[in-house]
Write a structure and sequence with these properties.
Length: 500
């Protein structure tokens, strides 16, 4: 085994973490972050659309740093730093030299997804980390053939399942890959493997119990995501989009890694992982999905690709990879996507950057939207203001009101969207309700109230020199609805809607 390149890996991790922290407070909250903060006020073993880990981390960030956006995102930056170090350690397990370890860590730091998810608190952020945490002991297991490592793999997978169910896809395709080889099948036929599965299921059990007790709403979310992200077009684009997602200048390295794992006899113990990756990609080519779903595999693929490239240099008498020269190349490659994926540029550039990274637009204008909703409430009579509640069409709007509205309003915010529905029904008699969103549902609202009047539409153009930024909230209506016809206690079910 090669020595660990601790100094270099920790240095690269520190640089990436520092960059992510430095820009963490720019622009604003993402709608999902506002939802996680709301969920942190209702800590549970599960939610309609996710397991409990990310909301729990949002709770921790707020407990430690208050309302600091940088504090909320600190754990995400640290998570990406950890991914860099783990990628280097995976490369070492594959037989990589110090140079390979450093370059593998640098490659993963320079990927577009690393930058994008490291900037936000999201389930995808910790999915990337936890996939890497699962793969590290699995790679060591395939090297050492020590079946006791299944217990570590199982524990890591169990924690991963408390963040996102996608760890099951890693497990499923990885196990299918192992079944393709006699050596892999031998590692599965052991009580230690069964023990690892038992640990994973035990850790996952509280979330499963929550879902069962609430009618398995996650299944409806899956169906909505499949309808939204699936289909022929997204399937055909899934593989080509791996190139810009991982960085076009770095993609040849992981492509070499896939081939090397399949064909290089010295990497034969880890061939099941390449097969698992190909099965994973094939699945999403058929059913369609977001391209970042595959990102968890790349710490292994970059390591394998660099090992093959170094051996190719050795076969030609050129010696090992030269860290300084090759790190400079990776650094240049990594700098290219930074202005598009991180809030480096002025907010006026969001209309341009959001064409590449749509999440950028979803971090814009939340305080202004809240001010516009509060202005509608302020226009009511004192008696109406005393009993008004606000019901929003999505969790981003509700979360923004809870975060930015004044104390007299923030405790009267409700939504039927995903887990917000369980935090209702609204209080009061529904004599006056400010409804945000439901742009195409005026008739639906008219069936529930005696009168529905359009008060305003949310608009962010004033924040960008008169040019509106196209995000989900831009142009959404704000209604004043009066005379709720059915009490909240019996009619709240009709407001419920689950979607991803």
């Amino acid at each position: 085994m090669q020595p660990v390149a601790w100094a270099g890996l920790l240095g690269i991790a520190a640089l990436l973490t520092a960059l992510l922290i430095a820009v963490a407070g720019r622009y604003g909250y993402h709608r999902d972050e506002l939802y996680f903060l709301a969920a942190a006020d209702h800590l549970a073993w599960g939610y309609v659309d996710q397991p409990p880990l990310t909301p729990a981390l949002a709770w921790l960030g707020r407990a430690l740093f208050g309302d600091s956006l940088t504090g909320l995102r600190l754990v995400s930056a640290l998570a990406m730093g950890a991914v860099v170090v783990l990628t280097g350690l995976i490369a070492r397990e594959l037989g990589g030299s110090r140079a390979v370890q450093l370059l593998a860590g640098a490659c993963i730091a320079g990927c577009g997804v690393t930058l994008a998810v490291g900037h936000l608190l999201s389930t995808a952020t910790f999915d990337v980390l936890l996939w890497t945490v699962v793969l590290f002991p699995l790679v060591r297991l395939l090297r050492t053939r020590d079946p006791r490592l299944w217990l570590v793999v199982g524990a890591a997978a169990g924690v991963g399942l408390l963040n996102k169910v996608s760890v099951l896809q890693l497990a499923g395709t990885g196990l299918l890959g192992m079944l393709t080889s006699r050596e892999g099948r031998g590692l599965l036929a052991t009580r230690w493997f069964a023990g690892g599965v038992a640990i994973a299921l035990a850790l996952w059990a509280p979330y499963l119990a929550w879902q069962a007790g609430h009618g398995w709403p996650q299944l409806e979310i899956f169906a909505d995501l499949r309808e939204e992200d699936g289909g022929l077009v997204s399937g055909l684009l899934f593989l080509p989009l791996q190139l810009p997602m991982t960085n076009p200048l770095l993609a040849p390295i992981w492509i070499v890694g896939v081939v090397a794992l399949l064909r290089d006899p010295r990497l034969r113990p880890w061939r099941p992982l390449a097969i698992g990756f190909l099965l994973f990609v094939a699945f999403y080519v058929v059913v369609g999905g977001k391209p970042y779903y595959a990102f968890g595999w790349y710490p292994v693929l970059f390591g394998a690709g660099l090992i093959r490239l170094e051996r190719w240099r050795g076969d030609r008498g050129q010696g090992q990879l030269r860290p300084v020269r090759h790190l400079a190349y990776v650094a240049v490659a990594a700098l290219i996507p930074v202005p598009l994926l991180l809030p480096i540029l002025p907010a006026s550039a969001i209309p341009v950057t959001s064409a590449v990274n749509e999440d950028t637009a979803e971090t814009f204008a939340w305080p202004a939207y809240v001010e516009q909703i509060e202005a509608v409430v302020a226009g009511l009579t004192p008696a109406e203001r005393a009993g008004v509640v606000v019901v929003t069409g999505n969790y981003g709007e509700a979360g923004a009101l809870e975060r930015f509205a004044g104390p007299e309003l923030r405790d009267r915010v409700y939504s039927g969207h995903n887990s917000y529905w369980f935090w209702g029904p609204p209080s009061g008699d529904g004599e006056v309700v400010v409804v945000v969103g439901y742009d195409r549902a005026r008739d639906w609202l008219a069936q529930r109230f005696d009168s529905v009047t359009l008060a305003t539409r949310l608009d962010n153009a004033a924040l960008n020199d008169g040019e509106a930024v196209d995000n989900e909230e831009q142009g959404q209506p704000v209604w004043i609805a009066r005379g709720l016809r059915e009490p909240w206690a019996t009619g709240w079910l009709g407001w419920r809607h689950y979607d991803g």
